[in-house]
Design brief:
The chain has 15 helices and two strands. It is mostly helical and 325 residues long. The protein has one domain (3-322): Farnesyl Diphosphate Synthase (Orthogonal Bundle), CATH 1.10.600. The longest helix is centred in the middle third of the chain and has 27 residues, at 102-128.
């Protein structure tokens, strides 16, 4: 059995029902919009976000979930999908998970409007049921994600990202969303505030590890659907590169900055830079950091009573670190 299927096993029924509810939550009276949302639903990924919501809810709710958990998962997925649609427009990206993006098929204007529609659907779903506590968690996440993206753009121009700034960027860009999923899973069942806080922390730690793993793929040899050196090409300062810059000689430093700024599309130069990062121990450093986030996340998780849902979350933590894609 694949790891993802193993993780899904204790929440299989919830995920099936969620699919129905999520599809309904997107429906509209506009035929074009329905065509596009149908396209989105049929090209979904692993659906890790709703999985976190249901696993946390069932772990804390003694195996039970409520309607609020379904709504929370749907809102997260609607708003997350909206940000992805907008991201593809911002990045001028024609592909998403190997398929054409919305903007590639229907152009930017429609893609932006579809993103706005999904965002408003998510907000309304919470407001109509007075899930203001869940909406607050998600709204904070969207604000942080936007700030993280802008901080990354600002720093990429000057290439002056320190390790601390890098952690802040990935906390806002990636970790906050997983943190929100876990917090919503707890909050949906009206858990104690300290439990909600702990689950938020757990999701954040896991999100940090997840992003560092993604950074490492840029230097890997496996076929993962992400071209080698794509982060360098896009002038993204990732942890292995930041570590290499910090430990490089002044001459190497000038070379690195020159490659990232002026030769980021030169395959030979990018290959040389990837080799330098490997030689300088940049990958080992990033792996150690990722491992320390995994240890912290598991430590927090072990504070909760053992059951099949906690086991599945533990499996998820290890999957995030060991995944090949």
């Amino acid at each position: 059995m694949k790891v993802v299927e193993q993780i899904k096993k204790p929440i299989y029924e919830e995920m099936e029902l969620f699919e129905e509810k999520f599809t309904q939550s997107m429906s509209s009276k506009v035929a074009l919009l329905n065509r596009i949302t149908h396209f989105i639903v049929n090209r979904k990924g692993k659906q890790m976000r709703p999985m976190f919501v249901f696993l946390v809810a069932k772990m804390l709710g003694k195996g039970k979930v409520n309607e609020r958990a379904y709504r929370g998962a749907a809102v997260i997925e609607l708003i997350h999908t909206a940000t992805l649609v907008h991201d593809d427009v911002v990045d001028d990206s024609n592909k998403r998970r190997g398929f054409f993006s919305i903007n590639a098929l229907w152009k930017n204007k429609i893609a932006v409007l579809v993103g706005d529609y999904l965002l408003s659907k998510g907000l309304l779903l919470s407001i109509e049921h007075e899930d203001f506590d869940l909406l607050k968690i998600i709204s904070v996440a969207v604000k942080e994600m936007s700030q993280g993206e802008l901080l990354q753009i600002e720093k990429a121009r000057a290439l002056d990202i320190t390790e601390e700034v890098y952690y802040e960027i990935i906390r806002q860009k990636t970790a906050i969303l997983l943190a929100s999923c876990c917090a919503i899973g707890a909050q949906a069942l009206n858990s104690k505030p300290e439990e909600v806080k702990k689950m938020h922390q757990f999701g954040e730690l896991l999100g940090m590890a997840f992003q560092i793993k993604d950074d490492l793929f840029d230097y890997g040899d496996e076929k993962i659907g992400k071209p080698l050196g794509i982060d360098i090409k896009e002038k993204k300062m990732t942890l292995p590169l930041i570590y290499t810059l910090n430990t490089a000689t002044p001459f190497e430093k000038r070379q690195i900055i020159n490659t990232v700024k002026n030769h980021n599309k030169n395959k030979t130069k990018v290959k040389e830079l990837i080799q330098l990062v490997k030689d300088k121990g940049g990958l080992e450093f990033a792996q150690q950091k990722m491992e320390s986030y995994r240890v912290e996340a598991l430590k927090l998780l072990m504070e909760f009573p053992k059951n099949e849902y906690r086991d599945a979350l533990e499996l998820m933590v290890n999957y995030v670190i060991e995944r090949k894609i």
